[in-house]
């Protein structure tokens, strides 16, 4: 972004360093000293809130040498991502991820490629089953498998990280690969470990530095190399499954996402400009696989920690499950409309944990005049989801975990336009419907069958995230699943 610094720029002292504000034809500019760039990466949401109070809801921050426009608050985020959705639908720079997918797939692609792959993925996921089994059936079946696995802990203390990761991963596997794994399968556990480690590392200060100074990725050692190796492992696994599908493909009877993509490839084999290639299939499946596994499992893990912290909330959810579903059948999505408190708890878990605080980076697809600011084409945009999910007018005392944020005075479930954990607009999460279904069915099925017992007094449970940049990662903990 072209920004000329004027002599009369004002300065403001913040955290013992100077930030400079220049009023020009683009949003007010904050230049971050080198010593604070890592700190900003770690707690950017808090700093963005401070900046917005001084500079307003639209301002420019320099990360390294790169200008990034920050949108803070519901109105600015909605106006950009929804009202001007097409102009703000580009994917901003994320060098570590670009090193992996090279602009392919669905998460980090742009332009025609992104539109075609996203459209295909949405259609395939929505229509998945091809008349055979609904996605809800698959989630319910996996929820029952999860319960059986939790029974094997014999009410002993356990770290739920991998068990809770296996369930959503198996749902994605059934959709993408037409198979599920045993929870003790070592290849399966290896995949889970890669996803878990990558979310933690992508939320570390060093990865934020690499994203701001991409030249470091090729020349310095560090955890970014572990991220790249983990992604390479997953992509190799995906390629193996694709080769198996190519050998067994029945174009008249597609079994899963990969089959559907291979059929689309065959239909477009004479189109030299087709986006449906093996390379794009590998990248797309890796995106769907990763995004559909770790985000949901982390939310589940954080959710159970909150339910341990607030046993009175857990008790009310269990009372509602008992009244609506009883104990002799599995909870289903139709139950949700009759379980307003449980629905509110699931929403509040997502709102409170604020899993991806600054969203994935967007970019403007053309020169945009936004709130009287000129934002040049290609400029990276950060839409602060924290500023929406923790808005104190919509959600009084937003730093408190309180299901009443989604309940009216009569105890009925209350929707909120501010509920954006999956982002919003044209880049919102493709798997939102599946993720919301999994969270409701997995949590209700667990609480239908088990009481949760903490190893420490609930008031002493620490719910502070251990990582707090790209994603919020809950601390490790142990609990006992006591059969009801």
From TrEMBL:
<dbReference type="GO" id="GO:0020037">
    <property type="term" value="F:heme binding"/>
</dbReference>
<dbReference type="GO" id="GO:0006721">
    <property type="term" value="P:terpenoid metabolic process"/>
</dbReference>
<keyword id="KW-0479">Metal-binding</keyword>
<comment type="similarity">
    <text>Belongs to the cytochrome P450 family.</text>
</comment>
<dbReference type="GO" id="GO:0006805">
    <property type="term" value="P:xenobiotic metabolic process"/>
</dbReference>
<dbReference type="Pfam" id="PF00067">
    <property type="entry name" value="p450"/>
</dbReference>
<keyword id="KW-0492">Microsome</keyword>
<dbReference type="InterPro" id="IPR017972">
    <property type="entry name" value="Cyt_P450_CS"/>
</dbReference>
<dbReference type="InterPro" id="IPR001128">
    <property type="entry name" value="Cyt_P450"/>
</dbReference>
<dbReference type="InterPro" id="IPR050182">
    <property type="entry name" value="Cytochrome_P450_fam2"/>
</dbReference>
<dbReference type="GO" id="GO:0016712">
    <property type="term" value="F:oxidoreductase activity, acting on paired donors, with incorporation or reduction of molecular oxygen, reduced flavin or flavoprotein as one donor, and incorporation of one atom of oxygen"/>
</dbReference>
<protein>
    <recommendedName>
        <fullName>unspecific monooxygenase</fullName>
        <ecNumber>1.14.14.1</ecNumber>
    </recommendedName>
</protein>
<dbReference type="InterPro" id="IPR002401">
    <property type="entry name" value="Cyt_P450_E_grp-I"/>
</dbReference>
<dbReference type="InterPro" id="IPR036396">
    <property type="entry name" value="Cyt_P450_sf"/>
</dbReference>
<keyword id="KW-0560">Oxidoreductase</keyword>
<dbReference type="GO" id="GO:0005506">
    <property type="term" value="F:iron ion binding"/>
</dbReference>
<feature type="binding site" description="axial binding residue">
    <location>
        <position position="429"/>
    </location>
    <ligand>
        <name>heme</name>
    </ligand>
</feature>
<dbReference type="GO" id="GO:0005789">
    <property type="term" value="C:endoplasmic reticulum membrane"/>
</dbReference>
<keyword id="KW-0408">Iron</keyword>
<keyword id="KW-0472">Membrane</keyword>
<keyword id="KW-0256">Endoplasmic reticulum</keyword>
<keyword id="KW-0349">Heme</keyword>
<dbReference type="GO" id="GO:0006082">
    <property type="term" value="P:organic acid metabolic process"/>
</dbReference>
<keyword id="KW-0503">Monooxygenase</keyword>
């Amino acid at each position: 972004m072209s920004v000329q610094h004027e002599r009369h720029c004002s300065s403001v002292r913040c955290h013992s360093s100077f930030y400079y504000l220049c009023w020009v034809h683009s949003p007010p500019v904050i230049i971050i000293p080198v010593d604070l760039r890592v700190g900003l990466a770690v707690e950017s949401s808090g700093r963005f809130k401070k900046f917005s109070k001084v500079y307003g809801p639209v301002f420019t921050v320099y990360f390294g040498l790169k200008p990034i426009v920050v949108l803070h608050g519901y109105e600015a985020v909605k106006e950009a991502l929804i009202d001007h959705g097409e102009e703000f639908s580009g994917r901003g720079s994320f060098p570590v991820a670009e090193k992996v997918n090279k602009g392919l797939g669905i998460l980090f692609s742009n332009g025609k490629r992104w539109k075609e792959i996203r459209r295909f993925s949405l259609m395939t996921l929505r229509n998945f089953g091809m008349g055979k089994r609904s996605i809800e059936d698959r989630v319910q079946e996996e929820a029952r498998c999860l319960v059986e696995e939790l029974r094997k802990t014999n009410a002993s203390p356990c770290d739920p990280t991998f068990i809770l990761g296996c369930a959503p991963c198996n749902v994605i596997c059934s959709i993408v690969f037409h198979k599920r794994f045993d929870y003790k399968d070592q290849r399966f556990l290896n995949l889970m470990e890669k996803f878990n480690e990558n979310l933690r590392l992508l939320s570390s200060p060093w990865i934020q530095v690499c994203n701001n100074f991409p030249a470091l990725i090729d020349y310095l050692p560090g955890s970014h190399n572990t991220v790249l190796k983990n992604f390479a492992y997953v992509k190799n696994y995906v390629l193996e499954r694709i080769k198996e599908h190519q050998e067994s493909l029945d174009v008249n009877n597609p079994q899963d996402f990969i089959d559907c993509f291979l059929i689309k490839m065959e239909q477009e084999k004479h189109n030299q400009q087709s986006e449906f290639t093996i390379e794009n299939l590998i990248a797309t499946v890796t995106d769907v696989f990763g995004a559909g596994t770790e985000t949901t499992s982390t939310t589940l893990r954080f959710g159970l920690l909150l339910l341990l912290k607030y046993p009175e909330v857990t008790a009310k959810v269990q009372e509602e499950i008992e009244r609506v579903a009883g104990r002799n059948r599995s909870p289903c999505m139709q139950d949700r409309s009759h379980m307003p408190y449980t629905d509110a708890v699931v929403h509040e878990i997502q709102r409170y944990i604020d899993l991806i605080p600054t969203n994935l980076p967007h970019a403007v697809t053309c020169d945009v005049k936004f709130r009287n600011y000129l934002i040049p084409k290609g400029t990276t945009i950060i839409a602060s989801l924290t500023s929406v999910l923790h808005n104190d007018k919509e959600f009084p005392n937003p730093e408190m975990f309180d299901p009443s944020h989604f309940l009216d005075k009569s105890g009925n479930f209350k929707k909120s336009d501010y509920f954006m954990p999956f982002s919003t607009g044209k880049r919102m999460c493709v798997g939102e419907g599946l993720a919301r279904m999994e969270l409701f069915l997995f949590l209700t099925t667990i609480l239908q069958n088990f009481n949760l017992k903490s190893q420490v007094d609930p008031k002493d449970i620490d719910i502070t995230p251990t990582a707090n940049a790209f994603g919020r990662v809950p601390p490790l903990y142990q609990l006992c699943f006591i059969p009801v």
